[in-house]
Amino acid sequence: MMNTVRESRRDRETAFYLFTQQRLPACKPVLTPAWVITIFLFTGLIFIPVGLVTLRASSGVVEIVERYDAKCVPEPFRIDKVSYIQDDSIPKNCSVSMKVHRYMKAPIYIYYQLDNYYQNHRRYVKSRSDQQLLQGRKYHSTSPCQPVEFNNNQSIVPCGLIAWSLFNDTFTFIRERTKLKVNRKNIAWKSDRDHKFGKNVYPFNFQNGTLIGGGKLNPKIPLSDQEDLIVWMRTSALPSFRKLYGRIEEDLDADDVVVVQLMNNYNIYSFSGKKKLVLSTTSWLGGKNDFLGHACVFVGSSSLMLAIVFTLLHLKSRR
């Protein structure tokens, strides 16, 4: 009988029993007015300086954005842009100017921006074969790549809608009649180049069908070195996105005019999309983005206002 009582007491002292009975030791702070005011005040004093520093870093980034999809369509075809972009007999060359308003220190990053382009569509995202990108034609289970899986009863490498729709506009940059050198190496993530795309996998039977999607690939260059493809295959979560095209390794001075000679090949007119070219410098926080700074300042200011309100209420109705 005594042993049974002892075992019952021992069971009641176990952590599980104490947890289920909500009898575990716990810290139960009492949020007095002084504590609440101090917490809001501390939050405001931290977030406002962080927000201001972030905004200052973002304001130091120089960015030039130029939309070119509309202006690069010849006047006679502006009523029917789809027929223009689908007609290979019509020249697609175009020239736009980008004026530099502030000094831009190298490296200057070149991005192309697409709007109203839903790379996050479920069927589009799934239309790829990661194992085929690593192993090439040795991997045969490529059913997720449908409807771009085979052509003339031969497998397509790389298969899938994402690769098939590869962006293929090209850009040449000229300043004062001198061509600017664009570095197009190391624009993709190193982890993607080393671990997701095979070093001995070469494009095969790609864009050889009757319906051509986007850009073509050099069949003599392995996929691990096709950095345009690697950048494009990392799909975006939002319908408006930028992808890195290259880097200009020269400084640009204020009032410089950069003439961009481009080939307007990529069809975004079928779904009312937009194409933009972006030149941007970077800061220690990355590219230009004011949202983080404004968010921190908003949170900090709100906390300070609440601290002031609670202080006044506490002084007015002190117990």
Main sheet properties: 5 strands, antiparallel
Number of helices: 10
Hey, roughly how much beta strand do the residues contain?
Answer: 15-25%
Determine the fraction of residues in helical runs and give it as a percent range.
Answer: 25-40%
Walk across the major sheet and give the strand order: 1-11-3-9-8
Run of helices and strands:
HHHEHEEHHEEHEEEHHEEEH
Average pLDDT confidence is 90
Could you give the count of β-strands?
Answer: 11
Based on Cα principal axes, name the global outline.
extended
| Low-pLDDT residue intervals, each spanning 5 or more residues | none
Radius of gyration, taken over Cα atoms and rounded to an integer in Å: 29 Å
Instruction: Label the structural class.
Output: alpha+beta
* Amino- and carboxy-terminal Cα gap: 56 Å
Describe this structure in words.
There is one protein chain. The chain has 319 residues and is α+β, with helices and mostly antiparallel strands. It is built from 10 helices and 11 strands. The protein has helices spanning 2-12, 15-20, 33-59, 81-86, 122-126, 130-135, 161-164, 190-195, 227-233, 291-316; strands spanning 63-67, 93-99, 108-115, 150-151, 154-155, 170-175, 178-179, 182-183, 241-248, 257-263, 274-280. It has a 5-stranded antiparallel beta sheet. A hairpin with a 2-residue loop joins strand 4 (150-151) and strand 5. The longest helix is centred in the N-terminal third of the chain and has 27 residues, at 33-59. The chain is extended. The model has no long low-confidence stretch (mean pLDDT 90).
